[in-house]
Design a protein that fits this description.
The chain is α+β, with helices and mostly antiparallel strands and about 180 residues long. The protein is built from 2 helices and 10 strands; from the N terminus they run E-E-E-E-H-H-E-E-E-E-E-E. The chain is rod-shaped.
Amino acid sequence: MYGMTPWKDEVVQYPYRYKETQNSDGTVEHEPSPGTVMQQGTPQSATNFNHMENGIHDAHVAEAIFMQAKMHQQEEVERRLGEHDAEFTSETGTVTLTNSNKVFFAFNNSGTTVALKTVRKTMNYDLDIEVVEVAGGQVGDVIVYDKQLNGFKLKFEGSAKTVKVKYKVRGGMYA
């Protein structure tokens, strides 16, 4: 761990006072004449500055190590998400349901099997059904039944000749 240097300002009675001496060669020397020193300041030395530089360098090294560990952690998360991508995505499709009952004003009693592209690990998946097109009558209720790991069945109870539905399957990938 980096040991910080507690830097202190030098506090003197006369901070900007100098004694001036004339030299024989025409030059002038200025010598500090601060009066009473009330607080000794931290020396501005190579030892103190190098200590600070080493601390800055160590902080950069620690940051690089931390960032590399974070990158590896992110790569691991992405790898795991890639392996289980199907668990986090839904499957959508459309299917046309047909009323095979030929009796006039008869209600439908036929179903259609929908095969899933991705086999689920459990039948505990959710289905969202949306009617997008109807021909020749009323839809009634659209019913999902006989759910399996690899598909499900759909039927409608109304008198329509055909009903086109859009479905969305969510979940069912967790065992």
